[in-house]
Amino acid sequence: MSAVLVLVETDGGGATEVSRETLTFVRGLGLDVHALVVGDGPPGLVDQLGAYGVTTVHHADGDAFTSYAAAAWAAAVVAAAGDATVVTAAGTPRGNEVLAHVACRLGVTMAANVVEVESVSPLSVSRQVLGGSALEEMRLEDAVAVFSVAGHACDPAEAESHATPVVHPLDVSVPEADLRARVVRTEPGEPDESGGLKSARVVVGAGRGAGGPDGFADLLELTELLGGSLGVSRVVTSLGWRPHHEQVGQTGSRVAPDLYVACGISGAIQHWAGMSSSKTILAINTDPDAPMVTKAHYAVIGDLHEIVPAVNEELRRRSAG
Amino acid sequence: MSNVLVCIKRVPDLGGEITLTPDGLGVDDSALGHTVSPHEECAVELAIQVAKDTDGQATVLTLGSSDAVEQLRHALALGCTGAVLVEADASAYGPADVAAAIADVVRAHEAAGTTYDLVLLGNDASDTGDFQVGIRLSYLLDRPVVAGVSTLSVDGDRVVARGGAPDGGTEIFEVPLPAVLTVMEGGIEPRYPSIPGRMKAKKVQIEEVAPSGTPAGAGRVRLKLPPVQPSQVEVLGEGPEAAGAVVDLLEKLGVVR
Question: In whole angstroms, what is the distance from residue B139 CA to residue A47 CA?
Fold first, then answer.
């Protein structure tokens, strides 16, 4: 049986959530599922991959993989692919980058951020374009189909029957040219930069309606009262009112909180792409016809600078009572 | 001295709704303004900064219709000093075709004596989201490539590039020149055009290039929009009087601490 190879990204806990989504997604192709792990995997990873239906784990290790170089990773993917007919990874920055290198090496097309397989033979997929606001149906007609799987294309789920994977150490020869662009050092992120935003249960979003750099005090207070994070639209960062790491949207963070409070945000595609997965959306806007208002679950019509302080006041009153 | 080529793409400036063309193959942009992707705005800014810091030249390139001259002139107004239009129907070009067309221009310019230490592109175009033109270009030119760069500085015969790491930190690359870098928004603030800049931009002769060969295309079968949901919004009220209803909702959702 021919195989699908999945480049698996890992963190301290094993395969990352998006990589487990990808493994779940590709099981639908009805192919033997192989995985590639680059560098030291966390303990228990092989068993975890087996639970997701992986039958062979290729492992690339050695000096070329001690720090990240996309071209070296691509060399490992090509070495692991063997006669696989599908090569995938999660549609992360790293997944898309490595797969683009792989597509160049194999001389094939690559489809980024696939969410659905339309037909297996001939292979046709749908993928996110326009920041996820539209889908493109696309043919993949090469002998090897290379595509990344968009985050949240499916929920991660273990296979019905767990496999006991064969671990296959890869012998990859990485030429010096593949190490020209390599990480020479890393710096830790600033605490509470965007990390908190991405995992927040409540995000208070602010757009042009904030009015200026001084227009965020009430919004920050609401954020505090709800134990959430502040997220802003691109116009807010472009105008220099708030730092870029707070930006939510196509070119900022993507968030999926239980509640998104969209204050003074019209709801342009750029922003909607970053927060449309929110479970509940409450819009506060002066314009009842703004896209954000019509697409929201709940709305209050009016000036955020009048409404947000009143909400804060009411929250304080009830918590005191 | 470092010359920089920066590649941009004219894309529709989408508001809140998308309408497709009747054939379902593209976005109906007839009523829309146009712009370039935010990542490319940052790439243009970085190109201008590198050129200025090293006494080099920043040249802007696009593949598209003659309408894309608008985006080239904008980049010239910001501080690019040369512009190239590869005149073609961008929708007929897949990412490999675009990379090949850019590589042709780089080779032609270098044969004529203008070399580029850096070629900058956006990490991904805001319309097609292919995530691969810069990487494909690097293979055609046999140059190292780093994707997702937020800031960079040229240091002698190397470029130091910084980008985001999967764990939220920063990865630093030191890459020998010439190199290809794809840029992500977030590291720098793009400048606005000045009036003298706009005046100067009008006078720059744009080099027009006809692409060679027939593009293979992007394999697009059609575009699909999610079904339009009728608005389900429940309006809780108007103005500050709605505060009570809002807090009722917050309590119902269980998000009040």
Answer: 37
Enter the DSSP assignment of A201: S
**Chain A residue with Cα closest to B256:** A226
How many residue pairs from chains A and B have C-beta atoms closer than 8 A? 264
B157-176 in b/e form (b: 16+ CB < 10 A) is eebebbbbbeeeebbebbbe
Residues B189-199 pLDDT 10s: 899 999 999 99
pLDDT in tens, B142-158: 999 999 999 999 999 99
CA distance B43 to A251: 14
Q: Which of A56, A12, A5 is nearest to A167 (CA)?
A: A56
Contact B239 A306 (CB under 8 A): yes
- From CA A241, how far away is CA A305, in angstroms rounded? 16
- The CA-to-CA distance between both ends of chain A, in Å, stands at 67
**Would the CB atoms of B233 and A292 count as touching at under 8 Å?**
no
Question: What interface predicted TM-score (ipTM) does this complex get?
Answer: 0.95
> How far is the C-alpha of A210 from the C-alpha of A204, rounded, in Å?
12
Q: Which residue of A has its CA nearest to B26?
A: A136
Residue-wise pLDDT for A86-122, tens only, equals 999 999 999 999 999 999 999 999 999 999 999 988 8
Mutation site for B-interface testing, chosen from A180, A182, A202, A253 by largest number of B Cβ within 10 Å: A180
- 8 Å CB contact between A226 and A220: no
